[in-house]
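Hi, can you check this record?
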Amino acid sequence: MASGNMKDIKRRIRSVESTMQITKAMELVASSKLRRAKERVEQARPYFYALQDTVSRVLRENRFSSVYTEQRTVKKSLFVVIAGDRGLAGGYNAGVLKLATAEMANKQVSVLTIGKKAQEYFGKRGYEVLADYPGLAESLTISEIQPITADLLARFRAGEIDEIYLCYTAFVSPMTQEPRVVRLLPAAPTSEDNKGAEKKKHGLVECDPSPETVLNAIIPEYIGGTIYGAVVESYASEQSARRMAMESASDNAGEMIEDLNLSYNRARQAAITQEITEIVAGSGAVGG
């Protein structure tokens, strides 16, 4: 019995060691991708904040009517949801998908998904998925966002959708990722205190030829820049979450191997003790 038990423990130790090799390799890959993703985040943020600041200033300091600012009776909402293309990233995918689903409650919605996990999640649950873009995040460029932006704006101008929301995961730090929802359209001025933007004093904005013309020209860049920034932030968050998940899995595997080695040594000691007992008992019987 002891011998069979020892074989089972050895088999489990080899299995856990093999799993730990995989998790350590995935941790190293995620760490490497995270470094590049952080660089992209740092490069994208100034562009996004500049666009956001410009749009907010035009909206705050001018009164005019535009198709992009018109408040409508909301009949249909569109949610752009960004998730990962792979699992094994802790609660990264679950967090943003849960938030998006909560925001969609009691609304007539369509969904545009970026990332395979978002595509699978909403496709299986019967949501109307207008378009899906799996495998886009790792090598995305700003030019690749333009067709997506053009489609969204065309639907909004045509009245097919009355509001557009963006669901993504903000990269706060390598240890912290925060699911967020922001409304893209209708456009409205944001707080001057907002996320990481430097406080600056500006003079009165003068728009030429008109505030409406300027806004209508800026909005496609603003929406595209915001979606691009959200994809970049989400990708960095995914790699960070995966690195932490794989590090935790490797640590747990190491602890499991220690426990299994202890169990193996106990089983081995029990087998040796049993053999000695049998030898002693046999020797006594022969001597008697």
About this structure: Strands lie at 77-82, 109-114, 128-133, 163-173, 176-185. The first strand starts at residue 77 and ends at 82. The helical segments are 2-61, 92-104, 116-124, 142-157, 211-287. Residues 193-199 have pLDDT under 50 and may be disordered.
